[in-house]
Design goal:
This protein has about 325 residues and is α+β, with helices and mostly antiparallel strands. The chain has a domain of about 200 residues: Porin, CATH 2.40.160.200. The protein contains 5 helices and 12 strands. A hairpin with a 6-residue loop joins strand 10 and strand 11. The chain starts with a helix and ends in a 13-residue tail after the last helix. May mediate accelerated ATP-independent bidirectional transbilayer migration of phospholipids upon binding calcium ions that results in a loss of phospholipid asymmetry in the plasma membrane. It is a single-pass type II membrane protein. InterPro entries: Scramblase. Belongs to the phospholipid scramblase family.
Length: about 325
Amino acid sequence: MDKQHTQMNDSHPETNMPVGYPPQYPPTAFQGPPGYAGYPGPQVGYPPPPAGYPGPGPAGFPVPNQPVYNQPGGAAGVPWMPAPPTPLNCPPGLEYLSQIDQILIHQQIELLEVLIGFETNNKYEIKNSFGQRVYFAAEDTDCCTRNCCGPSRPFTLRIIDNMGREVMTLERPLRCSSCCCPCCLQEIEIQAPPGVPVGYVTQTWHPCLPKFTIQNEKREDVLKLSGPCVVCSCCGDVDFEIKSLDEQNVVGKISKHWTGILREAFTDADNFGIQFPLDLDVKMKAVMIGACFLIDFMFFESSGNQEQRSGVW
């Protein structure tokens, strides 16, 4: 028995050391496989991460701020915004809005519209201030309605997130397009999730200024929205101010950004920016997105021989 024990110790010299002396290297059982920390051997089958890629987080947690690529509805190579924790009483999919105070909306250029003037369904990328895509929006309107009614057309706009889920639906009914008639003015309904209204944007009659009222799901007035007398994007931005109900305090704005003489002259693809308080209810932030699309169709959308409107008339 003593001879067998001696042979076992000889086969494992790292354990055959005098008491009080530390081993010269860790036991074989604790060295780990090749590629383990401190081992010079290469890690087979795993290329090194690209430059600038964030390191791993704590065990069991995802990599922080890891970009997500090639999801439904988006162009390849454009990162999506990582999903934040879901706040209480937040409709599914709107948790992205809880951590941002600015949104950029970029309309995609449609080649068919540029070449022959045939109106196609509008598509938009909705991004945060870092350029990460938050949502993708696509119009769902039939061909006859788009080309006969032009910018005044009723439409359904579907907004999806990075998982391909439809998180918001915008419904614009057919309404009067002139301020001469103080009834049946423009309106858009915002649903989140689809089928559940969270707010409305209704046009308020005014002889000279474009004015709107932001309402919650109970049609209670929450905020006001007003634009300039002449809504014309000529070498500059056009701002629509978001105000308190008494219109004494400005809490944000919706801006139509100038995109350059060529793009403005030959396309109707517009860029918008929305600024609102960070602590604003996510439902009202979603309603602001709906207000931006309503403003786009009312004042900056052109179709065929119909030019964009320069004011409420």
